[in-house]
Write a sequence for this structure.
């Protein structure tokens, strides 16, 4: 089997297993109260980490580029309570514009 | 309790799908650019499609493709992609209660979990909406796979997603979905801590690790919340 197929199959199986972790191992059983409080914080924590890594993340380095402008414009759209699709479009447009000019 | 949950999930469904359409368009372009890059890296036609169908996670797929293109070897490519996807363990735990029925069914449905479907299904109080997760997940899966197919066969005809600014759209989307989560002081402090951990680790650790380590910030939930009643 070629290297490409080994990588594709191993990564595919590993990712299927990672995504199944919660639904298959835990399912809809009720979690103890302290664990439930921890799990409830996963959403804000992981979203914040995603915002940071997708805005300034590079390959083992911080990268400050047009994405910052996109997030800034998106934040402004959020502040004026724009709907979600508008936030996405405004952020993409600002990123593209700054990249074009810079 | 259950009638309240189903009413609010029905109310949120249309709104969430409309939001998912804009995101799906963005995801489609990234799928197409993945197909193009993978083909150019010598992965052929079938392997990129199988990878998109099973892995369904852009960052890991781009990472392993660039490592293979640089002749970085199978071990490095697998390690990078699995590290990048390790966040799906905590992410899937956060939505575990939405999945019912037999194990095989839960396994199949859990494959619709991807950053964007997970984030879109968040109701802002630490809970998630099953119909939004499944609905958005199906749309995004179709977008990712069809985008990959177009990219593999005809990618050169498409524009560069970066020129369209699409890489700046994803963090803005996650920010928009983060804001309603910050209802309690504990959630706000945990989010700030998680973001700070990720920021500090980006230059120090391989991609993927910062998000996984940042998830430890949710242990703040072990403290008795004085404002979470």
């Amino acid at each position: 089997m070629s290297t490409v197929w080994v990588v594709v199959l191993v990564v595919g199986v590993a990712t299927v297993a990672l995504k199944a972790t919660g639904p298959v191992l835990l399912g809809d059983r009720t979690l103890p109260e302290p664990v439930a409080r921890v799990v409830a914080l996963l959403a804000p924590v992981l979203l914040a980490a995603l915002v940071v890594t997708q805005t300034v993340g590079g390959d083992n380095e911080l990268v400050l580029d047009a994405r910052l402008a996109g997030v800034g414009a998106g934040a402004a759209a959020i502040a004026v309570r724009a709907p979600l699709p508008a936030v996405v479009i405004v952020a993409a447009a600002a990123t593209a514009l700054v990249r074009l000019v810079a | 309790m259950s009638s309240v949950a189903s009413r609010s999930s029905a109310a949120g469904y249309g709104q969430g799908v409309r939001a998912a359409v804009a995101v799906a368009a963005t995801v489609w372009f990234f799928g197409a650019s993945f197909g193009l890059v993978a083909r150019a890296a010598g992965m052929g036609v079938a392997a990129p499609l199988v990878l998109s169908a099973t892995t369904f996670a852009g960052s890991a797929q781009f990472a392993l493709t660039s490592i293979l293109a640089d002749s970085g070897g199978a071990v490095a490519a697998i390690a990078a992609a699995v590290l990048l996807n390790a966040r799906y363990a905590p992410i899937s735990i956060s939505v575990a209660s939405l999945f019912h029925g037999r194990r095989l069914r839960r396994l199949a449905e859990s494959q619709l979990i991807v950053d964007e479907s997970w984030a879109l299904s968040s109701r802002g109080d630490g809970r998630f909406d099953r119909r939004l997760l499944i609905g958005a997940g199906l749309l995004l899966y179709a977008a990712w796979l069809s985008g990959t197919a177009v990219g593999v066969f005809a990618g050169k005809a498409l524009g560069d997603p970066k020129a369209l600014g699409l890489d700046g759209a994803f963090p803005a989307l996650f920010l928009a979905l983060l804001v309603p989560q910050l209802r309690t002081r504990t959630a706000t402090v945990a989010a700030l801590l998680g973001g700070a951990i990720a920021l500090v680790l980006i230059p120090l650790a391989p991609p993927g690790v910062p998000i996984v380590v940042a998830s430890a910030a949710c242990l703040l939930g072990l403290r008795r919340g004085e404002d979470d009643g």
Notes: The radius of gyration of chain A is 19 Å. Chain A has a mean pLDDT of 92. DSSP finds five helices and no strands in chain A.
